[in-house]
Amino acid sequence: xxxxxxxxxxxxxxxxxxxxxxxxxxxxxxxxxxxxxxxxxxxxxxxxxxxxxxxxxxxxxxxxxxxxxxxxxxxxxxxxxxxxxxxxxxxxxxxxxxxxxxxxxxxxxxxxxxxxxxxxxxxxxxxxxxxxxxxxxxxxxxxxxxxxxxxxxxxxxxxxxxxxxxxxxxxxxxxxxxxxxxxxxxxxxxxxxxxxxxxxxxxxxxxxxxxxxxxxxxxxxxxxxxxxxxxxxxxxxx
Length: 238
Ligand SMILES: [Zn+2]
What we know:
Bound molecules: zinc ion
Largest sheet: 5 strands, mixed
CATH architecture of the domain at 91-206: 2-Layer Sandwich
CATH topology of the domain at 91-206: Nucleotidyltransferase, domain 5
Structural class: alpha/beta
Helix content: 25-40%
Number of strands: 8
Strand order of the largest sheet: 6-5-4-7-8
Shape: elongated
């Protein structure tokens, strides 16, 4: 961390005194270098997916201090996702998944203890998730029409609630038996996201629905930016 670079506006002539207090002549902010450095470390650990309890031990910080930064980052991520949202378009994979359960539940029904997630993935693009109450046709169509452009090409499996998608665009459903025969008709991209997210969600076993939504948006963001420098992105976000 460079003492001369203001952490708020990145101006390159911030001045520090012997007590470690920094003053930035451009944005006029004053802050403690030590605190800023500590915050930078917490953000870095968050970006590296180190759990808050472990990070607090390694950094010799109070667990609550670290946890609060982590949660605030998740809120900022969710806010940014919402702010930057634009409808998915082109070729879109659609699929649903249950999180948090041990056994496979009856699809389309509220499986106890599990959280239903509806995912949409733009081919070669972004993934976007929503949390519908169930997989009834109305819920599915509502979620898709609010987040995907009309006239897109939709790839799904053969679940009944997806059958009416033809009214909103071009619908191609994959037949599992022919899965490998059909070149473009697949939902492999979304299946990749499900395993990415499920593997990480295991750490948060038994969290509340409110927290689940926040963690899911975090994972969605991480997935969409997986080829980028997350430390930099999260630091700027803060
Ligand atoms: Zn500044």
